[in-house]
Amino acid sequence: MEKTIFDFTSAYRRYCIMAAIILLATTAWSQSSGRQTVEELVSLGFENVRWTENDDECIYTLENNVYKAQGVGIAQAIDIIQKNGLPIGKRCKVIVTHLDIPELTLIYQPNTGHDTKANHTNYENWQTSYDVEGTWEKIKNTEAKNSSRFKVDILVYPQLSFKNLIITQVYQVLFTLNPAIEVSFWPGMKLTGQVIIPVYNDGYSIHQDKVHPGFLTLSQKFRLPYNIKGKATIGFFNADRYGADIMLFYPFKDERFSMEGRIGTTAIGYWDGFKLHYDTEFNLTWTLGGQFYWPQYNTQFSLKGEQYLMGEKGIKFETIRHFRYASVGVYFMKGEHAKSNGGFRFQVLLPPYKQKRFKNKHIPRVSTSYNMGIAYNAGNEQYYYKQYRSAADENIMNNNRFNPYFIKSELSNNY
Questions:
Q1: Treating both helix axes as pointing N-terminal to C-terminal, what angle do 404-414 and 70-83 enclose, rounded to 10 degrees?
Q2: Sequence-ordered strand ranges (E) for 252-364
């Protein structure tokens, strides 16, 4: 009777063949899932969409220009990524960009190599962070689908101003509609041209009776080592100023704490209709301070030292509570040569909350601005504490839209 001899060589070959088949099948499924995810994100209107995968992680980039509430837009993108299946035994990272400059990272960490294909309504396992270093380098040279470059937005910024300075009139009121053309030609760059159209002027200012230019700016966002974010801007700002401005933001390792700095050199420049009046004497202004973000209540506390347009130095303390569709805050200021002052401010998101471009990408998209707000000067201070904004969309709500703790809370609320 013949004895059966076990052929180790043959068994090893079969094992290798089966392993290769499984690896190829898994890779093919992963490739198909990644491409399908990119196609779905692009079809919904997400811009600057990229995807790459290696042995350790799967990486996506995307830019939400569809939903005005960033948290809602990012939740929709994560929903698509999870629905198509997360990679097996790997991390999945999503870098959210603005003007194709990275803002924050969302990370899904698998459990001990098990299948991480998740229920598409589960956002709880995603972690958020300002940290993009290393990850961005692996994907930034991948071709971006549905690029944001050369796409034109026409945003109408409504603005309501009022003051109470005379006895015979309760409030002097000004309401304007300020359409602005915004376009980006390269990563981080934005060109803005705005026109201010007075709708109602009840004694607020005789200089506001005519149609005249508003923000005329060229700005460049950038990212430095150690997750420092910045933006430089030149042009005509609000508060009758023109000049140059640069802002920097640095988050600490504990990202609830951060520092920000700003410096600008500006001179007086105002419009009488389309006739420009300007001065050549420039003034230096600056801001330097720290912030603490309380994630449980989405509340931000900041303390800053500042130099204002008249040269006086002072300090400002501010508390802001952020919601999905609004941000509300109070502030207190004390400067040299001036009595203490304070007040409140708020911003509300404007409908429509979802917007999409035409199929012909060369047709400008027309919509309302992302939000509208009012700052109330309780101390009725007219001369001191004067500042400017260097962008039409610079406000307390937009400044917080890429805060990782705020985005995490928005994902949790969607769960």
A1: 60
A2: 257-272, 275-278, 283-294, 299-307, 313-322, 326-335, 341-349
- Interatomic CA distance for residues 127 and 412, integer angstroms: 11
Greatest Cα-to-Cα distance within the chain, rounded to the nearest angstrom: 121
Q: CB–CB of 247/230 below 8 Å? A: yes
**Burial of 259 per CB tally in 10 Å (0-12, 13-18, 19+):** middle
pLDDT digits (tens, 9 = 90+) for 288-312: 999 999 999 999 999 999 999 999 9
The residues, ordered by sequence, that sit 6+ positions from 282 with a Cβ below 8 Å of its Cβ are: 243, 265, 266, 267
Average pLDDT, the chain: 89
Which tops the pLDDT comparison, 372 or 21? 372
Contact 392, 157 (CB under 8 A): yes
Average pLDDT, integer, range 210-237: 97
Position 113 scores a pLDDT of 47
Q: Where are the alpha helices (DSSP H) in 45-119?
A: 70-83
Higher-confidence position of 9 and 87: 87
112: left (phi > 0), else alpha (psi -120 to 50), else beta? Answer: left
Rounded to the nearest 5°, which phi and psi values hold at 215? -70, 130
Alpha-carbon Rg for the chain, nearest whole angstrom, is 26
pLDDT, position 362:
83
Does residue 11 carry a pLDDT above 60?
Answer: no
pLDDT tens string 152-184: 999 999 999 988 777 666 788 999 999 999 999
Integer Cα distance of 173 and 202 in angstroms: 5
Buried b / exposed e along 319-348 (16+ C-beta atoms within 10 A): ebebebeebbbbbebebeebeebbbebbbe
Give 218's Cβ-side CA count (13 Å radius). Answer: 3
Nearest in space to 110 (alpha carbons), one of 127, 133, 128: 127
Q: What is the DSSP string of 232-273?
A: EEEEE-STTEEEEEEEEEEE-SSTTEEEEEEEEEEEEEEEET
Total-model pTM: 0.89
Whether the CA torsion 50, 53, 59, 64 is positive or negative: it is positive
Evaluate whether 370 touches 398 at the Cβ level (below 8 Å): yes
